[in-house]
Amino acid sequence: MSRLETLLAPAVEKAGYSLVRVRLTGGKHKTLQVMAERPDGTMDVDDCATLSRALSDLLDQEDPVEGEYDLEVSSPGIDRPLTRVGDFARWSGHEAKLELAIADAEGRKRFRGTLLGLEGTDVLLDAGGQKLKFPFRAIAEAKLVLTDRLIAEDLKGRKRV
To answer: Which tops the pLDDT comparison, 105 or 140?
Structure first.
């Protein structure tokens, strides 16, 4: 967990949300991106504004980022990043892209396939009929692929809320 995540996670949770990802980007002008969601997986514009206000106060007080930056609070979106071990179980059956921090024995870093859940903390992926297993800690980035099935599931979830 990064220093920023360690600082922001308690405030995000206190506001009633789950932290999905914290990312600081940019050179001279930086953007601090905070992705979060409600426990039910939703996050609307009002939630983003509420969380932004809560985090702004904390960031003003702690001043953890050197120089000027913009705070951007957002939902993870439909084709969300997968950042927590549990995300890989929660989204089992959906298509995802994974990038490893270090290439595997065959020199590959990028994979695409259907998530098959977890075996302990190892992520299982069906990549074109080939069953692959990656330690969670070996995954640098992962995200869902936007598919008709994912969109349909998202729309169904919105109707329940």
So the answer is: 140
Edge-to-edge strand list for the sheet holding 30-37: 18-25, 30-37, 69-74
* Alpha carbon 24 to chain centroid, angstroms: 14
pLDDT digits (tens, 9 = 90+) for 3-61: 999 999 999 999 999 999 999 999 888 999 999 999 988 899 999 999 999 999 999 99
Domains of the chain plus CATH, in order, are 3-74 (3.30.300.70), 85-160 (2.30.30.100)
The pTM for the full model equals: 0.86
HEC sequence for the chain? CCHHHHHHHHHHHHCCCEEEEEEEECCCCEEEEEEEECCCCCCCHHHHHHHHHHHHHHHHHHCCCCCCEEEEEECCCCCCECCCHHHHHHCCCCEEEEEECCCCCCCCCEEEEEEEEEECCEEEEEECCEEEEEEHHHEEEEEECCCHHHHHHHHHHHHHC
Write the single-letter amino acid at 154: D
Edge-to-edge strands of the sheet including 130-135?
130-135, 122-127, 110-119, 95-100, 139-144
Question: Maximum distance among all alpha carbons in the chain?
Answer: 52
